[in-house]
Amino acid sequence: MRELRSSAFWRAVLAxxxxxxxxxxxxxxxxxxxxxxxPSVVGAALAFGLAQTTLVQALxxxxxxHVNPAITLAFLLASQLSLPRAVxxxxxxxxxxxxxxxxxxxxxxxxxxxxLGVSALHPGVGPGQGTVVELLx
Length: 137
What we know:
This protein has 6 helices and no strands. It is an all-alpha fold. The longest helix is centred in the N-terminal third of the chain and has 25 residues, at 7-31.
């Protein structure tokens, strides 16, 4: 519990929050239809990849640059991260992603916003099946 009182811990949690906020803002922003025509899947993939790479490079020395809850969970399961730090990172990442999506929602015009980059299930796939596929992948 001494870890919770250190400034390094809170600096790392703040870095994860900001990294997740920027990751959601940049990645989702690139996946919106800013121009007429079909969406650019390659552009969105590159935006997410470059955003992740840049954020890891920028924040890695502060928090490890996890930015993604799946990475934090993997580090916890591999005993490379303490439980209090993992919980702090997970909360910061979820709140950061919500804040990033909220900022994007607020600054994006309605016609461009659409579903804000949220994909839908194929008509033949139920919510339970979709959840299992997401968990497995």
